Amino acid sequence: MDIDMLVGDLGVTVDTGPLPKGWWGAYDRTGHAIILRHGLAPIQRKSTLAHELGHAWYQHVRGDKKAERQASVWAARRLIKAGAFIDALHQTQTAQGTAHILGVLPRDITTYISTLTPAETLLIRQIITPQREP
Q1: Where does the record place the IrrE N-terminal-like domain (predicted)?
Q2: How deeply is 51 buried, as exposed, middle or buried, from its count of CB atoms within 10 A (0-12, 13-18, 19+)?
Q3: Which member of 25, 30, 69, 107 lies 3.0 to 4.6 Å from 52 by CB, making a disulfide possible if both were Cys?
Q4: pLDDT of residue 83
């Protein structure tokens, strides 16, 4: 799903503005608004917007560890589709390479992988492992 479409679906306003040092984005629950740092590269913007939309989805009040994880998982599951992930793994098996192919940040790949169940991991391994002929 297109991340920018989710902005409208969730009724969130998005703008650029000043943020504390090191922050790329922030969600303000009271105004149901997202602020993104000006000048983010397109992939940074997409990933950050998806993460902040995760906060909006859950209506987080604070950015504690649990809330940050929830927002990251929400974002990764919307940015990365299983089929595209598997296709990318046929070309590379590194997080950086997979991220490049999918147009996301390596942290999104790492988060996505961390959400896979053992059964999903096994299935992916079976799909991407070349079959040996008898």
Answers
A1: 27-95
A2: buried
A3: 25
A4: 92
Are 76 and 112 spatial neighbours (Cβ–Cβ below 8 Å)?
A: yes
Tokens found for residue 91: 């070309």
Residues whose CB falls within 8 Å of the CB of residue 128, separated by 6 or more in sequence, listed in order: 86, 89, 90, 93
- Pairing mode of beta strands 33-36, 25-28: antiparallel
Do 48 and 24 form a contact (C-beta atoms < 8 A)?
yes
pTM here?
Answer: 0.88
Q: Which domains does the chain have, with CATH numbers?
A: 3-128 (3.30.2010)
Burial of residue 21 (number of CB atoms within 10 Å: 0-12, 13-18, 19+):
exposed
pLDDT of 47-63, one tens digit each?
999 999 999 999 998 87
The pLDDT tens digits of the residues spanning 82-107 come to 999 999 998 997 999 999 999 999 99
- C-alpha dihedral (43, 39, 50, 42), degrees to nearest 10: -20
Please tell me the distance from the alpha carbon of residue 5 to that of residue 11, in angstroms, as a whole number. Answer: 10
